């Protein structure tokens, strides 16, 4: 079974995404960047769903760390953000993000469909 790691500090969003994805994937979660990096290295998920605004590190920093580490650089990363500006999106894609979602524009079901499509 493929694994999805959600790195997000909003528990309600983690719970809703876990519910939407757990029928097809093993879903792991972390609420800080440091915890997310540890879990990514240990669990080797197929995809990381990464919030850009975390309490300890920015999602961009985490994405950069994942991509420069040989153990995690092949993990697909989809970044979730409330920041839809071109500069943020450019940073996400330059750092190696597979895709990005502006949270306000996506329902939980749509996010789940996107992840399922990426991992097929």
CATH class: Alpha Beta
Q: H/E series, N to C?
A: EHEHEHEHEH
Rg (C-alpha, Å): 13 Å
Q: What is the CATH superfamily classification?
A: Response regulator
Reported CATH architecture: 3-Layer(aba) Sandwich
Measured by DSSP, the beta-strand proportion falls in 15-25%
Spatial strand order of the main sheet: 2-1-3-4-5
Structural class: alpha/beta
General shape: globular
User: Which percent bin holds the helix content?
Assistant: 40-55%
Major beta-sheet overview: 5 strands, parallel
Terminal CA distance reads: 12 Å
- What is the count of DSSP helices, taking H or I runs of 4+ residues? 5
Uncertain residue segments: none
Q: Briefly note the CATH topology name.
A: Rossmann fold
Mean pLDDT: 94
| Strand runs, count | 5
Summed up, the domain count is 1
Task: Describe it.
This protein is of the alpha/beta class and 120 residues long. The chain has a single domain (3-119), classed as Rossmann fold. The protein has helices spanning 11-21, 33-43, 59-68, 86-94, 108-119, and strands at residues 3-7, 26-30, 47-51, 76-81, 99-102. A five-stranded parallel β-sheet has the order 2-1-3-4-5, with helices on both faces. Helix 1 (11-21) links the parallel strand 1 (3-7) and strand 2 (26-30). Helix 1 (11-21) packs across helix 5 (108-119) and helix 2 runs parallel beside helix 3 (59-68). The longest helix is centred in the last third of the chain and has 12 residues, at 108-119. The mean pLDDT is 94. This is Response regulatory domain-containing protein. Residues 3-118 form the Response regulatory domain. Keywords: Phosphoprotein.
């Amino acid at each position: 079974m493929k694994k999805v790691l959600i790195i997000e500090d909003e528990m309600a969003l983690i719970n809703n995404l876990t519910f939407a994805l757990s029928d097809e994937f093993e879903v792991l979660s972390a609420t800080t960047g440091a915890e997310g990096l540890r879990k990514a290295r240990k669990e080797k998920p197929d995809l990381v769903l990464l919030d850009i605004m975390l309490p300890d590190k920015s999602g961009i920093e985490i994405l950069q760390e994942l991509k420069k580490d040989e153990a995690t650089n092949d993990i697909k990363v989809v970044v979730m953000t409330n920041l839809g500006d071109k500069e943020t999106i450019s940073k996400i894609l330059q750092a190696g993000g597979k895709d990005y979602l502006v949270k306000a524009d996506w329902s939980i079901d749509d996010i789940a469909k996107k992840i399922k499509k990426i991992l097929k």
